[in-house]
Amino acid sequence: MMKYILPTLALGILAGYLNNSFGSSPLNTIFSEHVFNFSLIALLFLMGLLFAADKQSMAQIRKARLKILLFPLVVALGSLLGGLVGGVILRIDILAAMGVCAGYGWYTLAGPLVGQLFGLEWGALAFIVNFLRELFTIVATAIVVKVDKYAPIAMGGATTMDTTLPVIMHYCGQDTLIIAFSSGFTLTIAAPFTITGLSLIAH
Amino acid sequence: MPGLLDAAVLLIPLMTGMAAGYLTRGRKIFNFKKVVSVAILLLIFSLGFSIGSNTELLIVMPKVGLYAIVLLTMALFFSTLFVKAARKLVKI
After folding, report:
1. pLDDT at position A59, please?
2. Cα dist. A196→A57, A117, A148, B7 in Å?
3. Residue A154 and residue B82: Cβ atoms within 8 Å?
4. What is the ipTM of this complex?
5. Chain B stretch 27-66, residues whose beta carbon is closer than 8 A to a beta carbon of chain A
């Protein structure tokens, strides 16, 4: 499976680029919206089915209970600390650097929101950092899972409720579904509040 | 906020799938592994497609590349470190 991920992504990028170069055709909407949404919905359905059909996965979640809420909290804290340390290393505005990392991988939100609150160049940076976070999680999960079973969930941030969920479940096991989804869901809700909160402190 | 609404909508297929899985529990069900793999690749291809057709993203990428890599590396490092520590703390 892993050997197909990178070539498929590269092929997709190339196809999108060529399609755009030869004038925008309906193919863009078909792939970027319809195929994307359809495969995402189908995957979420199948992930739910496989998870609930497995007795052991449910038993493990029952045992973990509220502890699973700790995951999004520490991922958020880790991302913010990462922004702080990165900001110090690069000698740039620390709060803006933290705002960039507070998208937790949700680039379609982080880009425009950080751009509006901190300035356009920060918006571009937020878009790229969070976009690369998603991309890196998809590509590297197969390797990172060897470091820690839950490391890909930490890396994926807010994206573990949708785009990176299938890959994470594939490599980390079916029992990670609830932790990955709930962590992604909580971080998705937290992202706009954290970014806005940081901008309030900054101004 | 439309983004949050989209996120909440994703709960529907997941919950429906879980209900279907719960109802068919114990029974021999069709092996979905191949379907899952194909759907993952389809998702990744269409993700790539939307990246490739986003010219603005491709133009701005090299300009902020170094900053992005440093910030991303730090965010990933500390998130992973904290999750590892939290797992030890609460024993998951």
Report:
1. 74
2. 37, 7, 32, 19
3. yes
4. 0.82
5. 29, 32, 35-37, 39-55, 57-58, 60-61, 63-65
